[in-house]
User: What shape does this take?
Amino acid sequence: MAGSNHLWPKSTPSAPLTNPPLSPNTGRGILTTREKESYSIHSVENALDVLEALCDEPDEVQISRLSEKLGMTKTSVFRLLATFENRGYVEREEQSGRYRLGISAFEVGQKLLSRMHLLRDARPVMDMLVRNCQESVYLVIQRGTDALFLEKVETPQQVKIASLVGRRYPLHASSAGRIFLAHQTDSELKKYPVTDVLDLNELKEIRECGWSRGQNELGEGVASLSAPLLNSGGGVAGSLCFVLPDYRINKELLEGLLLPNLINAGHTISSKLGYLGHYLRREMA
Assistant: This one.
């Protein structure tokens, strides 16, 4: 646990839930242009055409206008708009019957914008962190019930852990993921497999001290150390995570170099994201 006397908790390796899909033809994790076209779903393409057409309109628009613009029947446009309306991506003005973008489309855009800001604000701090500590550091975000390793600055040392960029792990199964869980409410935690008393106590300690650690979760012999990136509302926008071979870890390195620099980096990025509160740290027992 985060507050135990051991440098690292004992845990079993956890395989990532998903890896980037392999191209059936090239065997690589990137699809060719022809493959992308062959996998395209016509109905989804039409739906996106309607949504993009709405984005281009400065005002509310009638079905007939979209039908003419896209070369689709009014019935097809209506059915797609009705589906978007049910999900909140489109709103219909009752009196005129015209359509406009809905709040769900705005929310998706805001989430993307916040992640772009997160990457922009985090990258230079991550560069500095690796220069100071000589260990690989990752930017991790939450995707549903998983922690997604989004970006990395790699250690210059010869011995390093294979890249985790693009990999996803259950939130409870990595130090970076537990950062997100530690800031969830009790009702929100019910969605995750965190019911053991020890697990709940660990999350409480993480919330209080502001950092988390793990061993053998990202692979055998792999250690990690994570801290939260907080937004203006105090929510967790992401986590910053050291990933390194566990044989390089000792108490002096952890407490004298890695943890202080990680906490300072987390505080710096959180400040850039608009967080104005205290960024807590508790010394290791």
